[in-house]
Amino acid sequence: MSILEKIDLNNTPEHIAIIMDGNGRWAKQQGENRLFGHNFGVESVREVLKAAQQANVTYLTLYAFSTENWNRPKEEVEGLMSLLVHTISNEVGELNKNNVCISTIGNLDGLLGDAKQEMLNAFEVTKDNTGVQLILALNYSSKWEMVEAIKNIAQQVDQKEISISEITEELVSNELTTKNIPDPELLIRTSGEHRVSNFLLWQIAYTEFYFTPILWPDFKQENLYEAILDYQSRERRFGMVSEQIEKNS
Ligand code: FPP
Fold first, then answer.
1. Is-contact 58 102, C-beta < 8 A?
2. Please, are residues 147 and 170 in contact by the beta-carbon 8 Å criterion?
3. Do β-strands 208-211 and 186-189 pair in parallel, antiparallel, or remain unpaired?
4. Given phi > 0 = left and psi -120 to 50 = alpha, else beta, which region is 114?
5. 218 CB less than 6 Å from ligand 1?
């Protein structure tokens, strides 16, 4: 029985978010520079996308470039941007054929070169697709999006469009860049690090975490299936007790 066959396809996470980590260490192991690792990381993106399609996952959010990544050496930042532009421009046709819808979260205005234009083109080409929704977190950080949301809400109060008592969890969620996207049920981080690194802090309040020592360029389809199987073995209680969960199921 293959790992995919062991998955209960009626109970796969609707949304999986991934912190793709370990490209630099993987490259070092090969005696290569960091960009070599990022290039191989793209192959793992293809793998998880195929696996997500097979496993009935609707939303796949990948942390591709954080606001903190600007602090990396200039050659690495420029190399990552150019990798992004080339990958999207080379793959958009194939992604479109596979019914994948591309979108982003983050501040596209801050991206270098053609990256913003390339992303806008990819949104346009794939906007009507109904298969996997591939969301790239680009120039994204959770604290950045929360500050933006707070400013917008404060402005609405200031202009008397809403009153303070109307500020609810739902209203805050609708001010985030993820406003039309359900919260992830599963967050995966590769490379053995156990951190959240400013990623989807509001949205992961009840998300299950899966940490694996596998470095991102080594992460393949089966590894996504293993993470889903692990998720399916867990009991999600959302603050309740086991007996209540059993009664409701
Ligand atoms: C973290 O590994 C990885 C990144 C900051 C970049 C991830 C980007 C890709 C895999 C390319 C994605 C491309 C598309 C089209 C989505 P690291 O460099 O921090 O690794 P280290 O911790 O071993 O140094």
1. no
2. no
3. parallel
4. alpha
5. no
- The phi-psi region of residue 103 (left if phi > 0; otherwise alpha if psi is between -120 and 50; otherwise beta) is beta
| Atom 8 of ligand 1, residue of closest alpha carbon | 64
Contact 48, 18 (CB under 8 A): yes
Ligand 1 and 19: CB distance under 6 A: no
**Type and span of the H or E element at 94:** helix 74-97
Enzyme catalytic residues:
21, 69
Rounded to an integer, the average pLDDT of 203-216 is: 98
Side chain identity, residue 133: Q
Q: Is the CB of 20 under 6 A from ligand 1?
A: yes
| Residue to substitute in 18, 19, 21, 94 for testing ligand 1 pocket (most ligand atoms within 8 angstroms of CB) | 21
Distance of CA 87 from the midpoint of ligand 1 (Å): 14
149 phi and psi angles, rounded to 5 deg: -65, -45
76, 32 contact by CB (below 8 A): no
List domains and CATH numbers for the chain: 8-248 (3.40.1180.10)
Residue pLDDT, tens place only, 49-65: 999 999 999 999 999 99
pLDDT tens for 211-241 read 999 999 999 999 999 999 999 999 777 787 7
* Predicted TM-score of the model (pTM): 0.95
Instruction: List the helix and strand counts (H, then E) for the chain.
Output: 9, 6
